[in-house]
Give the backbone structure.
Amino acid sequence: MENFDLILVLKHFIIGVVQGLTEPIPVSSSGHVMIASEILGMGEQGFMFAILTNTASLIAIMFIYREDIIRLITGFLLYIKTRNARYRTDFNFALYVIIGSIPAGVLGVLLSDVIADSVSMTTIAIMLFVTGIALWLIRNLRGTKRDGDLSAKDALLVGFGQAVALTPGISRSGATIISAIAVGMKQETALRFSFMLYIPVSLGGVVLGFTDFLDEPNKMDLAIPYTVTFLATLFMTYFAMRWFMGIMKNGKLHYFTYYCFLVGILLLIFF
């Protein structure tokens, strides 16, 4: 344990908390991780770090939506097998999740080098303002579309929203939820569809990045800090997601408008 660095572990813990807290909510987790890393003097976090924290958040989200995931997969397969109308809604919803995942999946592969580039604090601030404005514009929208009312067009539009969120500083959950509400989904459906879209794209990123993780030369030296980061991200994502589900249920999404504006202004002043 002669190489154990308590300060480094604490910094990784803080970064994990920030990542987990901001992953589900519409404020850009990547932007906040960059801000926290800058404040803590840790510099830019590498691709391995992104894979690690993304995996932790993915596990937390999948655990929360485990019953929905099982129901959708079962309904999808049973409808294909039996053509029973009782499974049609789940089949369509699962199909639309697949369709909605295509834009981000394709662009994520084609533009991986561009996406990996770091961005300035000014860019993050601008993106937070954009997110805040979009959240403000949809604050009074109350959609009527439930799970069984969606269309392929709705799925693609929300999918393109997720693709836009590949831009560093744009919140993935913010872009997809805003898009989902804009096409007329009820807030509960918008939230569920948003995070169902998150799962295949995130899972694909983990699979594609696994070899890079294995080839990382410093992974053993950073085993303890990375483990701490993973666990902090895992638990904070779970609790943040539960909290955010309550926010959405109560129709208080516009609260994040004020937060985005506040952080954006602070970034322009201090960075």
